[in-house]
Specification:
By secondary structure, this protein is of the alpha/beta class. The chain has helices spanning about 10-25, 30-40, 40-50, 55-65, 70-80, 90-95, 115-130, 135-150, 165-170, 175-190, 240-255, 260-270; strands at about 100-105, 160-165, 195-200, 215-220, 225-230, 235.
Length: about 280
């Protein structure tokens, strides 16, 4: 049986999952056997162990009772629940890393897969300034950006289609040197053989089919999955009846957006400081 390698330094959820798996292995229990003691499913135990689902306080308290660990896991679960990553996003990242095709649309900021480290740091520094997250959570987010980008460098590399709302490239982030490097990164991205970069201009108006960011993944078995976020949680959708209309709308967005050549020209103009 293939088992996902866990990086306990990756996040509080990964650390919780790694220690849970270690204790379970020491007892010789399967995930289903532990789940029976907790009153949940083996699938739920697996999702917590691999960091795809954060442990609830009730789940963690059940672990402490099952293993006789006092309140150790309950305390650990607090850190996992207060991570900088919203609920649902770690599970999405796991699917993103093995996708054959990634179609993303972003509004307002450069998406994580295309960010430079300096841009990512400037973005999170502003969140710290607003006291939306802690400095530690900001560092966690910046490190995740690097890990996500690294996971997509392989053979074969996934096809990545990125449509950015015009606001993504017009909104300044950090010093001018940060934006200059970010523009350079976008131009490099557009040159890759497995990528397409387009800008959805403000002038599209009502013809723009999405008002919020959305991502559609095509997995190696050609199944589809979409991901979207609200303020506090992310939602993965696997039902084709719901994902296929999003894919159709994405194709319509691509048809209305600037071509890659025109998008590159816009970015080059912005980099030179011309409107």
């Amino acid at each position: 049986m293939n088992r996902k390698d866990l990086d306990p330094e990756g996040s509080p959820s990964a650390r919780f999952g790694q220690r849970l798996r270690m204790l379970r292995d020491e007892r010789g229990w399967t995930q289903d056997e532990l789940a029976e003691r907790l009153g949940c499913s083996g699938t739920h135990v697996s999702a917590v162990e691999t960091g795809r689902r954060p442990p609830t306080r009730r789940f963690a308290a059940g672990i402490d009772r099952a293993f006789g660990t006092g309140d150790r896991f309950e305390r650990m679960s607090q850190a996992a629940r207060h991570t900088a990553l919203i609920e649902g996003f770690p599970e999405y990242v796991a699917h993103e890393a093995r996708a054959a095709e990634i179609r993303l649309y972003e509004v307002g900021v450069i998406p994580g897969l295309l960010q430079t480290p300096e841009y990512a740091a400037a973005l999170e520094a502003d969140a710290v300034r607003r006291e939306a997250i802690t400095p530690e959570q900001a560092e966690e987010r910046v490190q995740l950006v690097a890990r996500r980008q690294a996971s997509l460098v392989g053979s074969p590399a996934p096809l990545i289609f990125a449509v950015l709302d015009e606001g993504c490239v017009r909104r300044p982030m950090g010093e001018s040197t940060v934006m200059d490097a970010q523009f350079a990164r976008l131009l490099e991205f557009a040159e890759l053989p497995n990528t397409v970069l387009q800008i959805a201009q403000f002038s599209m108006g009502a013809r723009r089919p999405f008002s919020l960011p959305v991502t559609v993944l095509t997995l190696p078995d050609r199944s589809l999955m979409s991901y979207a976020e609200s303020t506090h949680r992310g939602h993965l959708e696997r039902e084709s009846a719901f994902v296929l209309p999003l894919l159709t709308a994405y194709h319509q967005l691509q048809a209305e957006a600037l071509s890659q050549a025109a998008s590159v020209a816009m970015i080059e103009q912005l980099r030179k400081g011309t409107p």
